[in-house]
Give the backbone structure.
Amino acid sequence: MSWPWIVLLALGVLVVVAAEWPRVSGLVGADARRRRDRERRKAKLRVVKTDDDDFVESVQRDLDALPTIEEPRSKRP
């Protein structure tokens, strides 16, 4: 192989890498690492379900105790 063929081969490889770079960077880039780390952290999370009726009742009592202003309704002809 002579040097012009090696240069053409290197240019062909560069063109393929440039064309596929967005897909490759999505798999191995810094954003991909952050996304994988976030998915790993989210996998460890869990939803805690409780039947905390006391909380709901206390909120309802607080809302009922708030002062309200009721404007008089006037009859319009």
Notes: The first helix runs from residue 3 to 28. The radius of gyration is 33 Å. The CA atoms of residues 32 and 38 lie 10 Å apart.
